Amino acid sequence: MSEVQDHLKKGLAILFIGFNPSLRSGEVGHHYANPRNRFWKILYESGLTDRLYRPDEDHDLLEIGYGFTNIVSRPTRGAEDILPEEYATGRQQLREKLKTYQPQIACFVGKGVYLQYSQKAKASWGFQKEPIVEGIREFVAPSSSSLVRMPVDDIIDIYRHLSIEQ
Fold it and tell me: What pLDDT sits at residue 78?
């Protein structure tokens, strides 16, 4: 199974950062492709996109300033299958990507992703006070996985705070 290509360019408004691709994403080569993942619905219903995109349109979001990457590139069934050494390597690679591409906002799709990246013990939803990479605003959002027990409307409300103007 191949890795899902990052969608990056300099100066993105928002770079969405996940744990790693699902097996389904690895099969089809697109981000958030598992049919049970609510990512595309959350983007649309929070007002971040003007229509409901499909996973196979992930590259098109570069045109509106949104990019995609993961802390670990290897597709797995779940985040629990990611090895500690993969996180260590991914953490360093992610910092380099952020320094190179300089998105305005790094949005971590899942608190666990942010904690792995930052090596902090805890984080709150929303914008973080002290960025790891200077000049990049960090936003922690709930995971879009259907396994998350938080009501989807509450998740959408958190994503509504993901704005460049704030």
Answer: 78
